TrEMBL record:
Segments traversing the membrane: 253-271, 292-314, 373-399, 419-440
GO biological process terms, semicolon-separated: spore germination
Keyword Membrane among record annotations: yes
Signal peptide: none
Organism: Paenibacillus arenilitoris
Keyword check for RNA-binding: no
The protein's name: Spore germination protein
Keywords, sorted A to Z: Membrane, Transmembrane, Transmembrane helix
Cellular component annotations (GO), alphabetically ordered: membrane
Record family assignment: Belongs to the GerABKA family.
UniProt-listed Pfam families: GerA
Taxonomic superkingdom: Bacteria
């Protein structure tokens, strides 16, 4: 709908649209000979910075023509001619021609000024968005390397990444999602490094998100992922600009949302969930040892309780005699079978872990640690659980904390329980069937059309240098120019 030359009609439409919005401010202005012409400015007091109200004073100065020794106010016709030809002297300002754009500018934290007898309005950027300062990342601890973290300001996040990739090949495209929220979404990629087929598939999927109300980056993950019911995450997240820059060099697509500090990296492959940014800041031998330890932690976090249940219930002959006698002695007087005992301890461990996350930070860690010790000791004393089961559950929890990506660790927490049920039902055979089912699911899973087990299935010898061990950095530091050539 076009802006009307009738100022009263424009004001009535604005007041109707923003009815009961008590933080909306409509300020009338007068100008021209004998101050007989009217204008008004519209803005939300809760969204704008007070100092930027001076932009309107700059506009009033533009409405004055200086003759010899005096200043004369100009007419509406001269206002139209002046702004149409000369533009606006204030910074971050532009003209809007329809009411929808004016409303979008108002709700985005801008100041919009309407003039009588003019079918356009002036739009000044004056929004004040309070965000936290750049500091160390909270979800990704830093021992060695950059200590910057992304924040909730989209432009600031893009700037931090662009400082690391000073090339015009780093492309940023923006879209808006939602009818009410109109959330600004930006996705970036490195031209000639990203796979064209993957980029085309990503654009095809995200192009359908315009009607969705997006408030956080994870909303986009749920919208564009290949399998919504897979326990395994198909995209990675980071709060570190250096990790986002490295992902771009590796041919990934990054997705950022205004109002959240998480950067989504896609596609996300299984082997990448086992990698950390600090693997590339350590020496080769140290990084490789940490990588191998992390892989062992993955299998411990997934299968240790199930292995204990299967061995103690169905296959005691596979346990060394001395260890078997120790287990039998510790389980003497326990009223529950191994499966129920493991289920109870895992349930309480998950409750304590969740309580430690939800409680305020100063007391959350203390409650989770002290609670685990107290409940474990109390369970042993009361005869509900054996000491060996407490050790098994504790080792499983510690191993899950070793996984760099939190969403991958959450997937292991979910899969542990079906494996425990199968081990309690069929012993080692059930555990084997469960592991084969997981492996088949991983082999069939895809992320943006790419095989989830990329580098492993199908095998890529070139990329195996960064799977189980980390090869020397000199083999990674080449520019990714023309990685994917098009005919």
């Amino acid at each position: 709908m076009k802006i009307s030359p009738d100022l009263h009609m424009n004001r009535n439409q604005i007041e109707t649209l923003f009815e009961n919005c008590q933080d909306l401010s409509i300020v009338p202005w007068q100008y021209g000979p004998e101050m007989k012409y009217m204008s008004f400015s519209v803005y939300f007091e809760s969204l704008i910075e007070e100092l930027k109200l001076n932009y309107m004073k700059a506009t009033l100065q533009d409405l004055v023509t200086h003759e010899v020794g005096k200043a004369t106010m100009i007419t509406p016709e001269e206002v139209i001619e002046f702004f149409s030809k000369n533009g606006i002297s204030a910074q971050s300002a532009k003209m809007v021609e329809n009411l929808e754009d004016a409303v979008d500018a108002i709700v985005s934290g801008n100041i919009v000024i309407f003039f009588d007898e003019w079918d356009r309005a002036l739009n000044y950027s004056a929004n004040l968005i309070e965000t936290r300062q750049v500091n160390e990342p909270l979800a990704e601890s830093v021992v060695h390397g950059p200590r910057e973290s992304t924040v909730e300001n989209l432009n600031k996040n893009i700037g931090m990444i662009r400082l690391r990739l000073k090339t015009p090949r780093f492309k940023i495209e923006r879209i808006a999602a939602g009818i009410e929220a109109k959330t600004e979404i930006a996705f970036g990629y490195l031209d000639r490094a990203v796979n064209p087929e993957t980029l085309a598939e990503f654009k095809k999927r995200i192009s359908t998100i315009h009607q969705a109300e997006v408030l956080e980056t994870s909303y986009i993950e749920d919208w564009i992922e290949d399998s919504n019911f897979s326990p395994f995450p198909q995209y990675r997240y980071t709060e570190r600009p250096d990790v986002a820059a490295a992902a771009l060099l590796d041919g990934k697509i990054i997705v950022m949302v205004q109002g959240t500090g998480s950067v989504m990296l896609c596609p996300g492959l299984f082997v990448e969930m086992m990698q950390s940014a600090e693997d590339y800041y350590q020496r080769t031998m140290i990084a490789s040892l940490i990588r191998i330890t992390r892989i062992f932690a993955f299998f411990i976090a997934l299968t240790l309780p199930s292995i204990y249940i299967a061995l103690s219930t169905f296959h005691p002959e596979l346990i060394p005699t001395v260890l078997l006698l120790a287990i039998l002695d510790s389980r003497e007087g326990i009223p529950f079978p191994a499966f129920v005992e493991a289920l109870i301890m895992e349930f309480f461990f998950e409750m304590l872990r969740e309580a430690g996350v939800r409680l305020p930070k100063p007391i959350g860690s203390a409650v989770s640690i002290v609670g685990t010790l107290v409940i474990g000791e109390a369970a042993i004393t009361a005869g509900i659980a054996s000491p060996i089961m407490v050790v098994v559950v504790a080792l499983t929890g510690i191993a899950s904390f070793s996984i760099p990506q939190y969403n991958m660790a959450s997937a292991l927490r979910l899969l542990r329980f079906p494996l425990m049920i199968m081990a309690a039902s069929l012993g080692g055979f059930g555990l084997m069937v469960g592991c084969i089912w997981i492996l088949l699911h991983l082999a069939c899973l895809r992320s943006l059309g790419q095989p989830y087990l990329g580098s492993l299935a199908p095998v890529n010898m070139k990329y195996l240098r960064d799977v189980f061990v980390r090869a020397p950095l000199r083999t990674f530091l080449r520019s990714p120019r023309n990685r994917h050539k098009q005919n």
